[in-house]
Amino acid sequence: xxxxxxxxxxxxxxxxxxxxxxxxxxxxxxxxxxxxxxxxxxxxxxxxxxxxxxxxxxxxxxxxxxxxxxxxxxxxxxxxxxxxxxxxxxxxxxxxxxxxxxxxxxxxxxxxxxxxxxxxxxxxxxxxxxxxxxxxxxxxxxxxxxxxxxxxxxxxxxxxxxxxxxxxxxxxxxxxxxxxxxxxxxxxxxxxxxxxxxxxxxxxxxxxxxxxxxxxxxxxxxxxxxxxxxxxxxxxxxxxxxxxxxxxxxxxxxxxxxxxxxxxxxxxxxxxxxxxxxxxxxxxxxxxxxxxxxxxxxxxxxxxxxxxxxxxxxxxxxxxxxxxxxxxxxxxxxxxxxxxxxx
Length: 343
Fold this sequence. Notes:
The protein is mostly helical. The chain has 15 helices and 4 strands. The longest helix is centred in the first third of the chain and has 31 residues, at 2-32. GO terms for molecular function: transmembrane transporter activity. Its main location: membrane.
């Protein structure tokens, strides 16, 4: 039982990332009808927002420290971060330590700006073009963004630590009545799952309970009728593109301590996220979230040694096998709407 619960936790961790990226993909497709293959790059940019803020906070200058000497007895020069000089060693050290959570505040305006720029500068010209054209142009954009990040940050992964308070592991099994050390799980992965739940709940609440969200949902169902009512639905959809970019970016920010940011991490998640969207049903927000967690849990169980000893390599293909089975039995996915991508 403890092994099963551990795999469920692992699945929720992976599923959180899949669900957040798939949610943004579905928002863009459901509102604008655009198949955005650059969405994985937005996840990557979010992760590098965390890297960038960490580097900014660690900018420092050299001072002579008389309390430290080299082997000749000469005072050593030490680097003091500007943040510590401005706010004091204790406060400044805390700000640096909490750079990843603080990067959320940094990433939100950056990701919204990037989303607006992508939509207004490029994607709006492909609204009425075939989906194949949209895929080609957004995939090309993703490669360009990937190479830009590689140029400025290098090809190697960049370790980005979580706050010191969350770097350990939590004895989750004790809460459920198991023996100590039966289910040990990293704090930050639990934080990530909770963060994903808050973001997903916030997006659904925004669409469900606000006037803006109700108009967007109406526009997703019947864009022409909403336009005839005198509502500028295009501006609202542009905002939704920025919101989708922010969701992907925040997913990347919080994932940085789990998987060290690198220039190809967006592509690593992109294909899996599109599988999640297709399994959940194109244009279905609840389907994208449900499929993300479902496939994350299945992938986690498939990675168990007991399973791999029976079917070698199953952990690498389980998501695609499940996708094939679901699409053969339910061509529209788990919660797909009639008429979406069926013309």
